Structures are given as C-alpha cells and as structure tokens.
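Now read the record:
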Amino acid sequence: MEQWKKGGKRYASCLAEWLIDLAKTARLSPLYRVGRPVLFWLLFVLPFFLFSFSPSIIHPFHTSLTQMEFDPQRQTFEISLRLFTDDFETALTKENGGKSVHLNTSQKQDKLVEQYVRKHFAVANADRKLNPITYVGYEQEADAQWIYLEMPYSAKTQNIFIKQDILIELFTDQVNLVTIQLNQVKKTVVFRNNQPVQAVTI
C-alpha cells in the first residue's frame, strides 16, 4: 500500500495537468502558457489560503481523483482513489442507513468502504464483462481518504468501459478525474453527472 501513497501536491498537479490538456484542446493559449507550476499555485496553494480563513467552508469544489497505474511485472493495475473525508463520510452514512460514519477513528470501516466503492466504481472489457477488482484497504491523509484496489489486466485488451460515479448521488457538480497510466501512455478521463460511464481506449 505504501508504494501507491500520493500526496496532496500530486493531486493538485494532476488537476493542473488536466487543465493544461483542456487548454490545448480548446486552444486557450493564455491558460496553456502559464504552465503547471502556476496552475499548481492557482489550484492548490491559493485556495488553501483563501479558505483557511473561513471555518465554515471545508473545500471549494466537489472532486475526486482516481489513479490507475499498470504494473507490467504483476500484470495488474494498482488503483488508488482520493476522496475528501467529509464528503466520503456523508456518502458512507447514507450507505449505512443514516447511521453516522466517521473515518478518523481507530474503528476501521473496511466493509462499508468496500461496499460503497464497488457500487460506484467498476471496469469492464469491450464485451461489458466486469473485470475482477480486489479491495486492498484505505488510509487517511490530511483531509482526504485514499482507497486502494487492484485489478488484473490483459495487455491484449485495448477497449474498456469505466464507471466512476462516486459521490455523484450527493453532488450534481461532482467531477471525478481518472488518470490511466499504461507503460508510457497516460490519459485523463473526466466523469460527471451526465457521464458516469465512458468507453476508454488504452
């Protein structure tokens, strides 16, 4: 689990990278020219200072990050999902029939976490057959939770379907970013309320 651990800086860096890709596609040259360092400050450092002065605001937007990194030796995707703790606890409380769930305690909630994640995140092959996913565990980092999964993958498969609608049942503005890294190829797919399932070529 330790080798997958990603810090908040990498999370913001992924968001910056996604914005730059968007800028390239949309030909928004001013945004593209500022580069990742400036976008990192705009996305991560500046919001931190702005919202740290308002205790009633936990975070300014609803988003999650899913990273899928292929391990060629094990022929397995190592998958890590990063969710804001307060949003995730709200979703788990709803999943738990309204009984309050807290993740920052010594009592682990693996069964409930796995149950929720399996409902909202899945990968299928071109024939829409679900790929088996193994739940590894979760851990807290600052104001977020990292959930770890593993998925065997055949290099012969190029077209897959990904479902990523985590927290969309709570927030209509939820944006779920999924970054996929296979060998030297990396791509980012964006999931929203109107696009919870997407076909991806890798």
